[in-house]
Every structure is written in structure tokens, then in C-alpha cells.
Amino acid sequence: MSSVAVLTQESFNEHRSGLLPEQVKAAAGGPSGGEEDDSLPTYKDAFPPLPEKPLPEGVQETENPWSTKIKPLKSSIITQVFHVPLEERKYKDMNQFGEGDQAKVCLDIMHKTGAHLELSMAKDQGLSIMVSGKLDSVMKARKEIVSRLQTQASATVAIPKEHHRFVIGKSGEKLQELELKTATKIQIPRPEDPSNLIKISGTKEGLEKARHEILLISAEQDKRAVERMNIEKVYHPFLTGAYNKLVGELMQETGARINVPPPSVNKTEIVITGEKEQVALAVAKIKIIYEEKKKNATTIAVEVKKSQHKYVIGPKGNTLQEILDRTGVSVEIPPLDSSSETVILRGEPARLGQALTEVYAKANSYTVSSVSAPSWLHRFIIGKKGQNLAKITLQMPKASQHFINHLRLLGFPSVKSMCRCDFDYKHLFGQSDRVKVHIEFTEGEDKITLEGPTQDVQIVHGQIEAIVIDLVSRMDYTEISVDPKFHRHLIGKSGANINRIKDQYKVSVRIPPDNEKSNLIRIEGDPQGVQEAKKELLELASRMAIDGEYLENERTKDMIIEHRFHRAIIGQKGEKIKEIRDKFPEVIINFPDPSQKSDIVQLRGPRTEVEKCYKFMQKMVAEMVENSFSVSVPIFKQFHKNIIGKGGANIKKIREETNTKIDLPAENSNSEVIVITGKKANCEVAKNRILAIQKELANITEVEVSIPSKLHNSLIGSKGRFVRSIMEECGGVHIHFPTEGSGIDAVTIRGPAEEVEKAKKQLLSLAEEKQTKSHTVELRAKPEYHKFLIGKGGGNIRKVRDSTGARIIFPTPEDKDQELITVIGTEEAVAEAQKELEALVKSLDNIVEDSMIVDPKHHRYFVARRGLVLRDIADEYGGVIVSFPRTGSQSDKVTLKGAKDCVEAAKKRMLELVEDLDAQVTVECVIPQKFHRSIMGPKGSRIQQITKDHNVQIKFPDREEQQGESSVQENGESNGAVKEPSDPTLPKKCDIIVLSGRKERCEAAVEALKALVPVTIAVEVPFELHRYIIGQKGSGIRKMMDEFEVNIQVPAHELQSDIISITGLASHLDRAKEGLLERVKELQAEQEDRALRSFKLTITVDPKYHPKIIGRKGAIITQIRNDHEVNVQFPEKNDENQDQITITGYEQNAVAARDAIQAIVDELEEMISEDITLDRRVHARIIGARGKGIRKIMDEFKVDVRFPQNGDADPNLVTVTGRPEHVDEAIDHLLNLEEEYLADVAENEAKMAYMKPSGSTGPSMEEPRGHSKGFVVREAPWATGSRYEQFRGISQFWCTCGSRKIISMGS
């Protein structure tokens, strides 16, 4: 509904009554000639100009700032409205609008994104959502709305696999931007996935947008090319040129981007990217340069001291670039970690001499020198803020100023903080500065090291030496001993005392901090001042000791804080304790030494401050205790990596969201327990989330067993011994008992299904025994007997269990009582088991001494490696002590002492070992050295397994030195002995692997070693498929190598060979070959399919129909592409054939798409265009807000309506295009609308008449008033010529009809 504001006579009178008398008079009388004009103020009087600031010399006056366009300020808050049609709504229950799931979803979206949502229902039951907030929040909210309130559709778009990375963008930014922009979810197949289909999910509109954007990206990349060239690293400097000039010129000339790896990166590959023609041109030019340099360049090698290499290189390699620029010669320096001193010069022979001269000049242009100076004088040599060193460079003002500025940047405001610094003039001064000397002050050393250009070093050396002599002659130091409790009083409040002494006696005083617990105070400075300062400090200390006046208010208080919290209170790098000390500056806080493990923290200072600090720290510790609740979660070891997640993503997310600390056991640890620390509620949440991950990943069953709570303690056993023995026996299941005193009977068992069932039976059986007739007995036996009692692989103890039915539990390494053995079962079973065990233990207590004969040649085997074999025998056989005769004696008698049974068993074992040693042979196995690494396996795992399985010793030979490394020739003669030529029929020493052990075992081990020798087979694969087998960045071939455990070698591109080599174990080769051939079949099938999809068809269509075929925002052509799975390409603007449309796809699909386009064209050709005249005043009403009105008419009548543009000859002419019958109907409708809207226009114009000034006659109101001037000035900028007349009669009024602003021009 519209409203009109009408100006009545009464409202006019009311307005006029507010004017001043002069204004009323002027308004009534109108202009009265020149006198009145003279009385008016001028524009400059009314609006005096601002004072102009004079421009500085040499600066031209800029344009008038008012004439430049000022960028409008925009609000950071935006509002967008989204409409969800009824058919696409997820929640269609009209009775629950504003309630239920839909409302919850909206609240969740607002909470997640920070945007504000308002929902309303349209007449068509569609949902309108108004979203307000910052742009980023609105875009995120839009995506959430589409995915959660709107039904989803999905589609796929196929683009070449190599274009996928451009859709993803750097760090996934492009993909995220696309998803936000189109409000869709885009899924791109992983690099190893051969599919080229990208899946898009979202609304229909979003799908079309996303599909269009992806195809645009792909089309852009189709025009580009990438070329990789492998060029020897030594020729790279000739391609880049000095300071990269040559490569820059090449890029500018060809338009391609050329990426040459920097000297620090050991890569030979040069990558050229750009348009195909540009890349081809760049490759050709690079090849020409490379071939020319390879042909003409020669090398010379010279020896330069390693310490001088950095001078040849220069800062950031600038010297090397200078030499290359001047001479065209490349200088190759060995890497820093190499001991070689050989520098190689490569270039044209005529230029090598000049380059060599420059290399030697640079190498010898620098020197290293040192100045003797006591270390305590170093900071005085530096001076306050580096003043003394700055004096050295007074003759070089640039360097001096740079030096001072650099000291400030480094954060050394005082001498005190600079005494241990390292000053590098090379870093301080630019290339143009004359001083380039590195000055190094090393703490604790009585010297200063200088390094730099010889002449500069000599100057600096002399000046520093003069400073040292001067300081030594007039400086002294002394140390006094003062009790640390007086130190803070010597310092005084805010350092008042100590600062006064420093200033008065011109000395430096160092009082050690409290944590050093030192009583030595060091005074440095003028000898007389040092003595006077020493005297005053000692007097102060003695006064305090006598009368204690400084100490009467001091208090020392000990605070008990658990040692585990100390590090948390101190904080990283002492940040937290610094905050506490800043808060209580008068309180000294002393923590115990970490090695003491003491809980006492000492506070010392004024009584009131100590109390405040004590309460503050108590509160802090209480919070830490609350946050230190800990819970242990047993998780099977194989799932720890899944809980951590890729790059620690999962564990980091759980830590952040639950605000807990989660510690996992080390990878090489046997522990499966994950410890969670934090607030109790948070720990429980984190625990549940971790358990949920384990449950999802594995066949983990969790069952609850009901066992009376009164039996829990007896089932757990002392320190968990009983329950631990069940867990170990049942494959490491986890058994969890409820908290003691909770009264809960449920016991949880978690683990693999079979093991859980086994543990359940054992627990229930044990519980039943406990309830009815359970009996427990404890025995004691020396810990060294336990292994013997248990037996090899648990054989001895299993016999006792099987014969008696009792359960026998030995202590674990964690148990304090290592002698206690527990027997559980029925009374009869326990008694019988106890009897057997006691008999065994008693026999072990019967200590005997026995001897045996062992050939002295075998003694070394037993005592080698610190007696490892003997230690194993002692562990296994109840601690038997075996004594061998002293080394050098020829005795063969070996003594054994221990329990009788243990001695007998140990003796038997040693005889077996001696028998093995007597039967030992040495076998040689010849395997080429190049396979040794492969045979050993990762960290020698394969060889360790063979050694263990066959009980043999295996020794690999030393690696053969490369020829040319072992001997150096001087003056054409070798400095080593001349080697005789080796027999080619004999195996090389470096190929012989030596095995020791029993003959049959060695033979078996040799066979096992030979089975590990890699074998190579050749597979024929068409050359054109090689790049697809390799995959993007080698992902395809890596996947195959990992899957089949082989090495696959693809021939170099330039060889154009079809043969691919597979190397690996013989057992793996067949599978690898089958897998490779299977992949070839897949690729060939893909090639055939690609060829079929490459069928092209051209259709001729008049360019005027192209926009109609494309449709609004590409809707029609996208529909054709999707329906027929083809690519339709329209001509570019500069193409010759503007009427040619190209269709690419399967032949039948391309024909169908052509027919669909032809049908559209036929329909368009049947259309007619008719012009009608519509009053221009009604155009805006017909078009409607944002074109809604005219779009509705066009959709309803299936026509196209074109309105005139600004400046057209006939502003009333409207063109209607469509089928004849539709055009007639549309024209009738438009004419009807015109008639209706014109009536409204006439009515509005009639109402506007009331708002014009009255022209009636009368004594007061009815006399002609003329125009009200308002505030008038003379000589205004606009009062020139005819423009003044344009401004005079403007009167404005607003009519709210259609929210338009009407400006009426008066006469």
C-alpha cells in the first residue's frame, strides 16, 4: 500500500511561522533590486576558506582532492536472503514451523558460524531465510543451510586427472573457495585413484555453478604445457647466468616460466611451464646453450684451503656471481660437510686464467687474527651500547652508525647485556661500507678473534689492542663474600643502594641472583673506586649483621608444593614465575634443585607481601590439583597410530576440544596405556572418544560380566597380580573392575572376541572358586630360581598346573616383593601344588659345586661380549655361577656352582654349546655386494631373522672403495703401491659373506640368503603408457612397489623403450608382473574409451542464436552437456568461423546433442519480433524490482521482451520476440498493464499539483510570493552564466509512491 504526503495551506502557515521576520519579509516581497543584493553576504564571508599550506620546494601541486572519487565506506555487516522451494525442503511439517528439528538446526548454524538467521514461510510454502553477519560468516551459514535444510542432489564432472590439482589449489584454498561460493560439497579422487570423475553434492543451482567453474578451470589448463629437462647440475650456472640475468632474459623473450633449482638443492631437473609454443621455444633455446657449453667448456681443479672457501663464495654467493659475470666461468665449491679442498673452474679455456686469478685474490683477501684480552674486560671493550667499538669506525661513518643501530636492534641497551655477544660486521654493514670485519667475543676465553679483509683487520686489531692496554692500566676488579640473605638489602628498594654506589664510585657491581646461592659479589672498575665500593659494601653488610634493623620486618615461609607441579608453576622459559615475581616484587621465591625431588618452596620478604604471595600461590596450586585428575585407558598398541591420526590431527583435536593432556606410550614401549590428565569430566569425555575410535577400527568386543563386588579385590589380587595373569594368558585383553566401594557388580572385558570369551570363562570360574572353595597360599623363592621353576616356554610350571589344577602366579618386574609366589585354587589342588613347588625350591637350595672340561679354544665364546652367554645361562638356570680359568692359563677346567638341579641343567646346556662349537664350520656365500643392503633388510631385520632361525653367525664384508678415492696421483705417479691385476674368475672379496655354525645349519642359512637376492625380469609395456603407470609425481609406481615389495624401473623418456624392469625377491616377481600387466590392460581400455570419447562433430549455427542456446547463466547448454555427456565448444571472439559450434564425446551422444541444438535453432527460426509503443513512464513498473515482473511475464508467455536503452531514438519502443501466438498474447497483456499503470501516473500527477507554491491573490497569504530563497550568498562558485539559473528554481518533494524520489524544476 502506498501513501502520499500533501502540503496543505495550514501546514504551510505552520512552516512559515518558524521563519525570522527578515526571512518572512524577503519571502513575501521577493527581490528588491541592487540594495538587497549588496546587503547579502559573499560566499567567502559565509564560508571562509581554510589556510593553504605552502608546498615544499620541488613538489608540484596535485589535483583538487574534491575532484577525485572518494571510495564509499561499506558496512562490514551484510544481509542475504535465501529461498528454499517446498519440493526441496528437508523438514516439511507445517505444524512445527519454528520448532522441532528445523529450529534446532538453525540454532546450531547460528552457533557455529556466528551469523544471525530469520526464517519466514512464503505463500507457496517455500522457506525464506534471511542471513545477517560478516561476509565470511554469511557464506559459511549459506553452505550449512544448503546442506542441512535443503535436499541434496549429486552430479559428476569428468576432467583430466592432471587438472585436479588446479581445482584443489594451494593447500586446498581454491577448493574451499569453490565450495563456499557454490554452497556444494566437492569430492576429488585421491592421487592414487585412477578415476578422473569429480563428485559434486548440493542443490541443483549449486551443482550447475560448481560444474561450470570446474570446467572453466580445466579449459584454462588445457592451453598450458609443462616440460622437464634433466641437465647436469654443473651447467646450471651457464643457463641462469650471473645474478639470474640470462634465465630472466629467456623468460622475457619466450614468455615461459623457467624454474632452475638453486645451487643448494641437489637436483638436475629444470621445469618449464607456459603456453605450448612458449615452452617449446624455451626448451629449444636451453638445449642450444647447454650443447654449446658442453662442447666448448673445459675445467681446471685447484686446491684452496677449506677455511678460505667462504671468501670465494662471498655473502649469499655474490662473489661467485661476480666471477661468473666478469669471466663467464663457473666456480664449483665442495659442500661444507666435505673435507675436500679442491675447487673446480669450468668455462671457455681463454677465460679460465682470469677466473683463476680472481679466485686466488678473493681467497687471500681475508685474514684471521686475535687480540689477547682478559675475559672480564670484554664488556668494557665493547662499551656502553657499543660505544668503544663504534670509536674504531669513526673514520668510516657509515659503518659506525650501522653498528650502533644494529646493537639496538639486537636488544643490547646496556654493557651488562652485551658482554657475551658475537658482533659480525659483515652482517652490520652493506656492500658499500669499507669495514667488513667479524669481531667475536667468546665467554671464558681471554682473547678476541678478528676476521675480515687483511687491511681492515690490521686497523681494527691495532685499535682494539690500544683499548685493551688502556683498560688494563686503569681497571681492576675484586670479589667480596656477603651472606645471600643481605643481598636484597644491599641492592635496596628498586636498586637505590647499589645504583648510588655504582654512580658514586664509577664501578660495576654484580650481585648473584638468589637461584645461584652464591655469596660472592664482584666489583669492577677504577682501582680506587673498586676499593672504596668494597669498603662501603662490607660496612653495610656488617651493620646489618650487628643490629638487624633491615631484617626486623622480614619473614621466611616454607610452602609445601608437590614436586611434579614445580615445572608448571615456573612455566616455559620461566614465564609464569616471572609474572608472579612481577606481581610480588619484594618477595624472593626459591624452588629446590630438580635433582633433590623436594616439595619445599621458600618465600622470603616483607611479612605482608609474603602472606599475599603465599595465598596467591596456594590458589594457583589448588587449580593445578583440580586439573591434574588422571585416568588410564588401555588401548591395543596397533590402534595407537589411528588415535594419533595423520600428522597428529586426531589426538590434537581431542586435546583441544576436551582441554586435556593426553600422553601416549613411546613407540618402542610395551605399554598399551594412554594417560589422560585434566578435569575429571573432561577426562571422561576424552576417554570415551578414544575408546570409540578403537571400537570403530577393529573387531573389538566389549562384554560385561556380573561378579559380586565383594569378590573384586580377591580377583584383582595384590597390586593386580591375579587379574594381570589372566590378561596375559588371554592375549592381552583389558579387564576393568569398577571403583572400590561403588557397589557395582559389572566387570568389563574388552578385546578380540575369542580372547574375551576365554577371559570371561576364566573370570567366572575363578569367581565361583572364590565363592565356594577358593584357597590361596603364598610361597617364597629367590628371584633367580623363578625362570628355572617356570622352565623354557613355561614348560615346568605348566606341568604343575596340569597335574594339580591350581593357578600359580609369579611376581612381575614392577612388584616390590620379587620372592613371593602365589598359588590359587581348591584346597586340595593348592596343597598338592604347594608340595611340588616346595620340593623344587628345596632342591634348588641344595648348593653344590661341580666341574666340567671345556677346550680352551672355546673359552672366548663363553666370556666374549662381557660374558653374554654366561649371563643367559645364569638367568635360565637359577643363577648358576660358572667360573672359567684366567686368560693365559692353559687349564680346561670350568667350575659350576649353584642348586644341584640347576647345575646339572646348566652343565648339559654348556656341553650342547661345546658340541655345536666343535661341529662348527665356516661357509662362504658369494653374493654381489650391490645386493647386500637388500638382503640385510630395514635395520638388518632380515639377517637377524636368519641368524635366529638357523642359529648361525653371519659376517658381511666391508664395502669396496670406489676407484680413484684410495690413491691420489702426483706428477703422474701414484703415491700408493701398484696393485697386481686380480683374477676375473675369482670372486671379489667384497662379495663374500661368511657364515659360521653347524654345517647343516650353515647350508640352510646360505639357501635362505640366496632366496633374498633380488632377481630382475623385463616386462614389455607400450612406451605411451609409461607416464600413466608412473602416475602423478610417481604415486602410481610407488603404490605398486609398496604393494608387491619390488623395485620397478621405467626407462628414461629419451630412450623411447618399451621394456620396464622389475627387481625383487623371486617369490614376489610373478605377482608384481601380473599386477603390472593388469594395470596395462586397464590403461589400454581407458585409451580406447578416450578415443571413442574424442569423436568431434561441427554444427553451423547463426551467431545471433548462440546466447539463446547457452541460456541464462549457461543453463540450457549445461543441460545439453549433462544429458548427452558431451563437451560443447562455442567459437572464441576472434575466431574466423563464428558460426561453428564443436561437439566432442561418444559418436551417438554427439549426434544426439547436435539434434538437440538443431531443435532449439529450428524453434528460434520460427520466432518473430514485433515492436509496440509503451509509455516510458510505466516501464519501471512493468520491469519490477530487480526485473522480477518482466521475468514473470516472459516465463508465462514464453517470449523475450526488450526495453529501450538510454539514448535510444524512441524511448517508448518495446520489442517482443517469440512464437506468433505467444507474441500476440504477451502484447495484449503489456498494453493492459500500460493502461492500468497510466491511470496511477495521472492520479499521482494530480496530487503533485497540491505541493506547488500557491499563485492566488490576497492581502497576506494570497499575494504572489515568488520563490523562497532560503539562505542566499553572493559570488558563489555556481553563480556563473546560465548554471546559476539552473540552481535557482529547484524545489524538491518526496512521494512515497513506489519509493521513488521526484525532483521538480521550477521556472
TrEMBL record:
<keyword id="KW-0443">Lipid metabolism</keyword>
<dbReference type="InterPro" id="IPR036612">
    <property type="entry name" value="KH_dom_type_1_sf"/>
</dbReference>
<dbReference type="InterPro" id="IPR004088">
    <property type="entry name" value="KH_dom_type_1"/>
</dbReference>
<dbReference type="GO" id="GO:0006869">
    <property type="term" value="P:lipid transport"/>
</dbReference>
<keyword id="KW-0597">Phosphoprotein</keyword>
<protein>
    <recommendedName>
        <fullName>Vigilin</fullName>
    </recommendedName>
</protein>
<feature type="domain" description="K Homology">
    <location>
        <begin position="627"/>
        <end position="695"/>
    </location>
</feature>
<feature type="compositionally biased region" description="Polar residues">
    <location>
        <begin position="1"/>
        <end position="11"/>
    </location>
</feature>
<dbReference type="GO" id="GO:0005737">
    <property type="term" value="C:cytoplasm"/>
</dbReference>
<comment type="function">
    <text>Appears to play a role in cell sterol metabolism. It may function to protect cells from over-accumulation of cholesterol.</text>
</comment>
<feature type="domain" description="K Homology">
    <location>
        <begin position="296"/>
        <end position="364"/>
    </location>
</feature>
<feature type="domain" description="K Homology">
    <location>
        <begin position="773"/>
        <end position="842"/>
    </location>
</feature>
<keyword id="KW-0175">Coiled coil</keyword>
<dbReference type="GO" id="GO:0005634">
    <property type="term" value="C:nucleus"/>
</dbReference>
<feature type="domain" description="K Homology">
    <location>
        <begin position="1166"/>
        <end position="1235"/>
    </location>
</feature>
<feature type="domain" description="K Homology">
    <location>
        <begin position="1093"/>
        <end position="1162"/>
    </location>
</feature>
<dbReference type="Pfam" id="PF24668">
    <property type="entry name" value="KH_Vigilin"/>
</dbReference>
<feature type="region of interest" description="Disordered">
    <location>
        <begin position="956"/>
        <end position="984"/>
    </location>
</feature>
<feature type="domain" description="K Homology">
    <location>
        <begin position="1015"/>
        <end position="1081"/>
    </location>
</feature>
<feature type="domain" description="K Homology">
    <location>
        <begin position="553"/>
        <end position="622"/>
    </location>
</feature>
<feature type="region of interest" description="Disordered">
    <location>
        <begin position="1"/>
        <end position="62"/>
    </location>
</feature>
<keyword id="KW-0345">HDL</keyword>
<feature type="coiled-coil region">
    <location>
        <begin position="823"/>
        <end position="850"/>
    </location>
</feature>
<keyword id="KW-0007">Acetylation</keyword>
<dbReference type="GO" id="GO:0034364">
    <property type="term" value="C:high-density lipoprotein particle"/>
</dbReference>
<feature type="domain" description="K Homology">
    <location>
        <begin position="846"/>
        <end position="915"/>
    </location>
</feature>
<feature type="domain" description="K Homology">
    <location>
        <begin position="223"/>
        <end position="291"/>
    </location>
</feature>
<feature type="domain" description="K Homology">
    <location>
        <begin position="151"/>
        <end position="219"/>
    </location>
</feature>
<keyword id="KW-0539">Nucleus</keyword>
<feature type="domain" description="K Homology">
    <location>
        <begin position="474"/>
        <end position="542"/>
    </location>
</feature>
<keyword id="KW-0694">RNA-binding</keyword>
<feature type="domain" description="K Homology">
    <location>
        <begin position="699"/>
        <end position="768"/>
    </location>
</feature>
<keyword id="KW-0445">Lipid transport</keyword>
<dbReference type="GO" id="GO:0003729">
    <property type="term" value="F:mRNA binding"/>
</dbReference>
<dbReference type="InterPro" id="IPR057778">
    <property type="entry name" value="KH_Vigilin_N"/>
</dbReference>
<keyword id="KW-1207">Sterol metabolism</keyword>
<keyword id="KW-0153">Cholesterol metabolism</keyword>
<feature type="domain" description="K Homology">
    <location>
        <begin position="365"/>
        <end position="469"/>
    </location>
</feature>
<feature type="compositionally biased region" description="Polar residues">
    <location>
        <begin position="964"/>
        <end position="974"/>
    </location>
</feature>
<dbReference type="InterPro" id="IPR004087">
    <property type="entry name" value="KH_dom"/>
</dbReference>
<keyword id="KW-0677">Repeat</keyword>
<keyword id="KW-0963">Cytoplasm</keyword>
